[in-house]
């Protein structure tokens, strides 16, 4: 049995944040496939036994069961000694970006991708709203990266891994991603990290 167990599925960018952290920091980990598209996270037994919040990722380690990708990344940075902040100021800055990611950068983009790409809704007022909000969040991160290699401290941290949850997903959300050239350059730097893999290679697919 591996040291870390991650409940996940390949289409989940929130789970990818944790899978990438485990992979890039060289941990001994295994994936447990969660059949999200057939309703597993909505079943009461799964919520009772795995996560009352009805979400992946869920990480099991040393008798603990952790949820919420930002909290898991923070835990893993402390456990592994990789990709954390080097002082209190960096730690605060990392949390500032992880919260922005959870509230804006990941959430609007992931919702758009889910409705528009995976559920194939076509264009609706909701997809228009989500796309505008995602583009606004991308513009903020792009501006921050204009004169930096990574989000905090000029090296890869869990702030980058959090923001990277959906940026390597292959689906076309109708956003001109190439126009965010600082994000594109940052993605290339992440791709060059030893051990990097895209989401659909790192996690199981149903
Ligand atoms: N803030 C959470 C978001 C997790 C999340 O939304 N996970 C999705 C899959 S990517 C999920 O399980 N959604 C189930 C649902 O909303 O019913 C995190 O960062 O872990």
**Amount of beta strand:** 5-15%
Q: How many β strands by DSSP? A: 4
**Which structural class matches the secondary elements?**
alpha+beta
> How many distinct folded domains?
2
Q: Which oligomeric state applies?
A: single chain
Q: Ligands in the structure?
A: glutathione
Shape: globular
| Average of pLDDT | 98
CATH class wording of the largest domain: Mainly Alpha
End-to-end Cα distance, whole Å, is: 22 Å
Low-confidence stretches: none
> Strand count, sense and closure of the main sheet?
4 strands, mixed
Written overview of the protein:
- The structure is a single chain.
- With 206 residues, the protein is an alpha+beta fold.
- The protein folds into 2 domains: 4-83 and 195-202, Glutaredoxin; 88-191, Glutathione S-transferase Yfyf (Class Pi), Chain A, domain 2.
- The chain is 50% helix and 9% strand.
- It has 8 helices and 4 strands.
- A 4-stranded mixed beta sheet has the order 2-1-3-4, with helices on one face.
- β1 (4-8), α1 and β2 form a beta-alpha-beta unit.
- The protein is globular and about 45 Å long.
- The mean pLDDT is 98.
- Glutathione binds at residues 12-14, 41, 54-57, 68-70, 102.
């Amino acid at each position: 049995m591996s040291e870390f167990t991650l409940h996940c599925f390949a289409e989940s960018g929130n789970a990818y944040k944790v899978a990438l952290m485990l992979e890039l920091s060289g941990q001994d980990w295994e994936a447990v496939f969660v059949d999200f598209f057939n309703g597993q996270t909505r079943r009461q037994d799964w919520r009772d036994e795995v996560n009352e919040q009805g979400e992946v990722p869920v990480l099991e380690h040393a008798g603990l069961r952790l949820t919420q990708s930002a909290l898991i990344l923070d835990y893993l940075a402390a456990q592994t000694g990789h990709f954390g902040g080097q002082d209190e100021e960096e730690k605060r800055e990392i949390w500032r970006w992880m919260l922005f990611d959870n509230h804006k950068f990941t959430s609007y983009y992931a919702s758009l991708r889910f409705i528009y790409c995976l559920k194939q809704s076509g264009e609706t007022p909701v997809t228009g709203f989500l796309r505008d909000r995602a583009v606004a969040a991308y513009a903020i991160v792009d501006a921050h990266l204009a004169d930096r290699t990574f989000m905090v401290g000029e090296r890869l941290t869990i702030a980058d891994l959090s923001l990277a949850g959906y940026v390597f997903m292959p689906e076309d959300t109708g956003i001109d991603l190439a126009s965010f050239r600082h994000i594109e350059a940052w993605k290339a730097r992440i791709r060059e990290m030893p051990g990097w893999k895209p989401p659909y290679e790192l996690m199981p697919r149903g």
